[in-house]
Structures are given as C-alpha cells and as structure tokens.
Amino acid sequence: MSVTAPKGFRAAGVAAGLKAHGLDVALVVNDGPEAAAAGVFTTNRVKAAPVLWSQQVLRAGVVRAVVLNSGGANACTGPRGFQDTHATAERAAEALGIGAADVAICSTGLIGEPLPMDKLLLGVDATASALAEDGGPAAAEAIMTTDTRPKTTVVEGAGWRVGGMVKGAGMLAPGMATMLSVLTTDAVASAEALDAALRAATRVSFDRVDSDGCMSTNDTVLLLASGASGVAPSAAELAAAVTAACHDLAQQLVADAEGATKEVAIEVVGAASEDDAVEVGRSIARNNLVKTALFGNDPNWGRILAAVGTTAAAFEPDALDVAVNGVWVCKGGAAAEERSAVDLSGRAVTIRVDLHAGHDAATIWTNDLSHAYVHENSAYST
Amino acid sequence: MSVTAPKGFRAAGVAAGLKAHGLDVALVVNDGPEAAAAGVFTTNRVKAAPVLWSQQVLRAGVVRAVVLNSGGANACTGPRGFQDTHATAERAAEALGIGAADVAICSTGLIGEPLPMDKLLLGVDATASALAEDGGPAAAEAIMTTDTRPKTTVVEGAGWRVGGMVKGAGMLAPGMATMLSVLTTDAVASAEALDAALRAATRVSFDRVDSDGCMSTNDTVLLLASGASGVAPSAAELAAAVTAACHDLAQQLVADAEGATKEVAIEVVGAASEDDAVEVGRSIARNNLVKTALFGNDPNWGRILAAVGTTAAAFEPDALDVAVNGVWVCKGGAAAEERSAVDLSGRAVTIRVDLHAGHDAATIWTNDLSHAYVHENSAYST
C-alpha cells in the first residue's frame, strides 16, 4: 500500500505525457490531523530546482503535500527551473486549498531540459482529482524512470505504521541518498523527532547504497507524519521503524539497479572506526575492476586489496583478510583458500573484508558493472 | 629506440614463458660512467613486493640495472613475494657483476599469484646474455600485458637525450603513476636533480592520466642517468625533456587503454587553484555515467555538472560553463548551444569546464567506458 498504508494519507499517480508512456505525475497528501515533516537531500552542490524549493519548505517542518514527477529532473535549468517548481507548488496548493509553502516538490529524469509545464500543471490537477486512500501504488509507479518495478514498503508499529516508496536505478550513489523517496507515518511525532529518525535511518540505509558511484542532483527523502493513529512512539521506536522502511527500500534499489546482474553486500569488519569501514566499503564498491570481475563471476581478491589500499583507513596490508561468498580467498594479505571454491553463479554476492584494526563495521551495498549498464547509460538521453 | 636511445644503456627482452606467448622479461642496464637514478612509485598502500624492493634500492640514488617482468605482479604474495624479488635482483647482479642493491625490479600482471621463479630466473639469465645497444624495443615489448602495442619515446636535448618506455592499459589511475616506466638519459645529472625533474614531470603527465579510476599496486617510474654524453643540462632543461618524455608516454597510455573508443582530455579552467582544477577533472574522469555517455556519442553535460557538484572545489553552480568538442552546451549552469551541434564521431574528445572561480587550470586525460572494457576486465583472471 506504499505511502497510503498509514492512516491520514491519500495519493494518486496519473499519466500526464511527460514520459512517452506510463504514469509520470504523483501526489501525496497528508490529511492530518498533524503535518510534521522532515527531509534529507542530496549533498551534490549542483542541486535541482525542486531540491532547492523543498529545502525551503522543510525549514518550517511542515509538509501537507508532495508533488513528484518523472520525465524530467528540472536540474541545471536556471532561474526558469525554479519558477517552474514554484508554479507547480502553487497549482497543487490551489487544488488542495492549502498554502504553496507547505508543498514539497520532487522531480527525476534527464538533467538540463526544462519541464513541459503545460503538461505538468494539467497532471497536477488530475492527481488532485484522483486522490485516494489506496492511491499509494499508483504514486509509486508514477515516479519510476529506468526502474523496472515500483518499490514500496510498509513497517508495522504498535498501533501505527510507516509506509514508503522510492525510485532510483541509476546515478545511484549517496550524498545522503540517491533517489526520490517519500515515507509516511500515522504516528504522532514532532518535526524534530521525525528529522532525528530520518537522519538515523538514511545514514545506515540509503547512504550506504553505492550502485555506480554517481551522485544525483535530485536526491530527496521526505518523511511525513499525520498523527492519525493517535499513537506517539518513543524516539527509538520511531527510528527503528523508519530505519526498517529505509533499509527495505534501499535493498529494492540495489535489486533493480540499471543493468546489474549481482547484488553485492560489502561487509567491512575489524575497522578502527565506522567511518573507516564505510570508506573501505565505498572504495571497493566504486572500483570498476572489482565490479567487472564480479560481472565475470571472478573472485578477483587482488583487485579488492588494490581498492582497499587507496583508502586512508587504519590497516596493515599484510593483515588483510578477504572472503567472497564465505570463502577466505585472502588471509594476511596473500592467497589463502582456492578461488575456484567460490561460487559466484548466483545473483547475491557477499564480500567480507577484515581490516584487523579494531571492532567497528559497516556494510555498503553495490552492484556489478555489466554490458547492460554500459548499454543503458550510453543510450539514455539520445 | 626506447630506453637505449641515450648513450650508455643496453637492454634486452626475452620470452621466458611467464605469459602464454610473447616476450615477458626485460633487462635495462646502465653502463655509466655514472649511475644516478630517481624513482616514483604508487601511493597505493597495498604495494607489490618489487615496489617495496625498488623503493629501498632508490634510497641510495643509484641504479645500475632494472629487471622487469610481465605475466605476474608479485603483489599480495606475502613474505615469499619479497624473497622472490630479492632472488631476482641477486640473479641479475650475479650475471652482470654488480651488487643486488643496485638492481631495481618491476613486475606487472595478475595480483595475488606467486611468480614462477624457475622460469623467471632463467629469463633473467637470457636477458643478460642478450643485452644490446639496440635492445630498447625488445624491452618495451616484454613489459606489455593487455597493451596492444609497445610504447616508447625519445626526446632530444642539446647533445644528450631522454629515452623511455611504458606499459599500462588497465588499473590505470594514478597515485603517482599507473604503470611501469623506465626513462633513461645520457645527461650528467645527480640523483637529486633526476628526482626533481622526475617528480615535476610525473606530476603533470602520468599523475593526470585517469583511465578507469583504479590505482595499481605496482606503479613504478624510474629515471636512470648514464652521464655518457658528458653534457650537464640545467635543471630546467632536464625537467623539460623528462616532462616531454613522460607526456608523450602518458598520451600513449590513454590511446591504448583497455577497450577504449575515446581519448578524452578534460580541461578545467577558471579554477581558484590547480588542486581544484585537478579535483574537478578527476571527478568527471571517474564518473561512469559521463564515461558511458561518451561511449554513446552523447554530449550529456548534465552528468558532467553532476560530477562537478560532488567536489569541494570553489565554484557557483549557476556560473558553470561546459564545452564539448568546442560547443558550449552549458552556460551559467543551464543549457546553451544545441547539443546536436556536438560532433562526437571521432576518437578525440575535449571537455572544457570553466569554473569562473579563478585563473588556474589543469587537464586530466581519460577514456570512455565501453562494452569492450567490461568484456576485457570481466574475463582477465579466469
């Protein structure tokens, strides 16, 4: 049920002609009684107009509606792009009888092209007319770009819920997240509590997806609370539920990444700090030679060590251990178990690196680098 | 004539069976009268045994011979790997009647496998017997791995020369360099002068090649001076000639990079500092979405801006200009000239980014990301 699983939310998705076919405009409305919200956004310094707009909206900690469109990122579009985002918020506000300053906007698609505003504004009207308490799935479908399937989640609390949707298949490496995502809850929670829960959640979920090392201009994750359940969970309960929802959605991103044939978990253990573990995991995740080796079902641990060696993390080269799908192919920085013992025929791959430098750990999720990735991304805008 | 173009050097390349076919062991000997030398090495913290050995040799500033092998990197091979390198140096020293501490070693090939020492040592004997004043081309051929052609250079000074050879086609991104290279000169120069010239040269040549973002464990560039010309150039003359030689070899690396269909110069201008320009250029060079777009002949400047946005360089997003092959497709952070005006049908591509933040500049050389790169690197070790 996506974002409409919690009480107090309606949503819709319509086809407005922004894409050649399929739904492309979504609307999520928080009917309250409360309207607290939090958001995290790309740390890319080249930010799309809707990101700049939504960051302003979130400053007040109140969001009553979110308009999302695929078929265009509205990024690198100059002052006109920001005016277009403003006009979109005004149109939704008018249709809903609320203020435009309470309407967040998310866009995704090609960078550098202005949105066809005539089509988008009619699409906003259509979504407002189509709002429904079971509209979550349509909204999740309308935000897809190269995604092959909609991605949604529901996490049950004690008398309250978190629902969510996400899109993202390429340009998929976090500055904070990597995609558009709207999470909803009918819990009673302040904007500050939502912000704390959302940052805790994204830090260990979306932030640790690194499919292709490329950070987007449009990454946005919003968390909206209606309070409609009447239940006020503790900060820990809220954070746990939001983290579970983000984790589920993040795994769906990795599972549907452009052209991927492998879903790879890089578990770095024995690190002197969590930051070290993340740095090492990300270095491996972004190494094209590791990624092509995985595509070729090759447990090439030498490339993994070469990637580890480029980091500033604490470790001694002759103390590094590496396991691929449970086989310790490298111990003490040199060959150990036979690499032929590694079974890479399946889609799931786990790389475990023990730095032997401490007790911290982190997992980064990534994909292989395949012919299909090259094909899809060499033909996207032309 | 490669490394034997300057007076005072002999070289050889033989087939010792380390690779399935072709030459695979090279020897370069400095017959003097002088034997000053300098070296720069990978900054990867996971360093191959021959790198650790050669760093020790270079500490004294004297190199009388260099043994190079393809067919195995001798990286991540533990204490045995270092013993093997030591034994190789001893064998060459014995054959040449010099000390092992004056013999540098370079290895390249698969990481993590021990070298077949019986074959290698017989190969060292064979190269010592085959040493010739015109042996440079054979040496250049013997260090090839996935290179499709040997890469050599000669730069003429006033009565003296610099000669050189390089190998490298993958794992091609600098910590300092990205490959094995031996440069020779018959100039009279101290080890300190050679070191200064070599560091100045690699900083603006090999260090600015970033083919695939992956830093090797074995990168080594050596500069040997025989003094046989009797000419002592100024520091500036020496640096200029060594820089010209390194630049020529670096361009040959980019031209022969694994699976590449484009040779891309990323010129970053208007930077607040040279470091900023290098950071921006490298971020673009390492962005897989930019690289696949170039493979698809797509002047996708939005992806270029997204890559620039991930850096800490000084710039304002709405002041960025981007030209692809001379067409300013982006001005002021938004679309400008028609992207259809860009001709990407050729192999040479120039991306020019103006940060409008100062007066410094730097150029990074890279390649596209092609099906052939994925194919070659998914099938390398298996």
UniProtKB/TrEMBL annotation, chains A, B:
InterPro entries, sorted: Arg_biosynth_ArgJ, ArgJ-like_dom_sf, ArgJ_beta_C
Residue(s) at site: Involved in the stabilization of negative charge on the oxyanion by the formation of the oxyanion hole: T108, G109
E.C. designation(s): 2.3.1.35, 2.3.1.1
Enzyme class: transferase
Residues holding substrate: T145, K167, T178, E258, N377, T382
Family of the protein in this entry: Belongs to the ArgJ family.
Biological role: Catalyzes two activities which are involved in the cyclic version of arginine biosynthesis: the synthesis of N-acetylglutamate from glutamate and acetyl-CoA as the acetyl donor, and of ornithine by transacetylation between N(2)-acetylornithine and glutamate.
Annotated protein name in UniProt: Arginine biosynthesis bifunctional protein ArgJ
Taxonomic source organism: Phytohabitans kaempferiae
Higher taxonomy: Bacteria, Bacillati, Actinomycetota, Actinomycetes, Micromonosporales
